[in-house]
Amino acid sequence: MIEHRVRVHPSADLLPREDQLAWKLAAVATATEEPDADSAAMAVNRVIDNASVAVASLLRRPVAVARAQATAHGAAATGASVFGTGARVSPEWAAWANGTAVRELDFHDTYLAADYSHPGDNIPPLLAVAQHTGRTGADLLRGVIAAYEIHVALVKGICLHEHRIDHVAHLSAATACGLGALLRLPTATVYQAVQQAVHTTTATRQSRKGEISSWKAYAPAFAGKAAIEAVDRAMRGERSPSPVYEGEDGFLAWMLDGPGADYTVPLPAPGEPRRAILETYTKEHSAEYQAQAVIDLARRLRERTGPLERVRSVVLHTSHHTHHVIGSGANDPQKYDPEASRETLDHSVPYILAVALEDGGWHHERSYAPERARRPGTVALWRRISTVEDPEWTRRYHDPDPQRRAFGGRAVITLEDGSVIEDELAVADAHPAGARPFDRAAYAGKFRTLAEGIVPPAAQDGFLSTAERLAELSPGELAQLFPAVDEESVAAYDATLPKGLF
Description:
single chain; alpha+beta; 2-methylcitrate dehydratase PrpD; 9% strand; MmgE_PrpD_C; 2-methylcitrate dehydratase; MmgE_PrpD; MmgE/PrpD_sf_2; lyase activity
């Protein structure tokens, strides 16, 4: 591993492109060769995971809107598939529709370090371009491994949320790199694409603050679409703002730490295996990742609390990130509002803890139903729940050892008689260091659960069999990574939406 120092340089420095972060990222991506067996197996798991959450979201409004926009941009002979339809469209629009479907339920993979990320968001644009350009499953696999490698490195080295910049700025750079690896582009071409992608996808975190809207699902899809367009432009010989990270009017100087910005991004050394994907983890529950362990903890606590009317207060002692992003430290009244959007509720750990204590589990639809959020007993319990930052949990959150890193907390429940019940959980049960780490059978089980009633059993079998052969797939077989669904039901739902420009 090489630690690459990234700092601001005045234009007069004439910083050589080979010393710029965008070039370093591009060089890692374009040097990516066939992955080792563990990385390849995990990439298959994430392709399965993405399809699981995509098919479960097909009849949700944001996904239908993105799908309608995409199918208005058809491609005659090439193009890429769109979940829920038989259509093939221009790849950037396929990435838009499929990226929204994957992200809508907040139910796929995650990586947390200095910043946040959902590396699975790289897969829809990579799959779209692989289809459109007639690449094989092995090509797609190489691109996925490279994109994860770059995404994890950026999230380890550069914190965006501290400056209220949305995490999709790292995503777009990773996708551009993954596309470069997929297509075996020259390093110089990928370098230009990375710079344009970062320049055009830098946005504020207001999309994840207060009353959170459906844009939370669209944001990564937009980044994937922008990355495809950046690669197309770079392939045509066009250049981009440079150096996009280190320039005196660039990303670090004006969006992040300022003229004195100084970061370290860890990147693999030449010949080093690309294994960053193995550091990432998926979700068993449809909620923000830092709530995963809280839901599992609630299942344990529920057995000890008795009637929840006896609860006077619940305080979750947790990390800075959890307290300030999804906890009461965010100071968002919307996180306690029974009329809040689903997107807001899945970023409210007080709501999630209240429902999990009452129900003993979590469901991607029932747990967010408006009538569920408005239940008087739930609202009363919900408003007795708060979070506090605990320095020890913050330290554990940033532990350099992935096996010791903790994303949970300690819950202290005080009952009306003054007695106290306490318990803690460091990581979710499904985490690699958890009680029940997700394996291939768990990913397949998640797919079958979410696909029930949407994908016929025979089509479920066919999809899983295809996904497991990812490295061997011919160009024509990539379409089989889109499970067959009842397209008439999808079309009927789409017909109920208002029309736009396209």
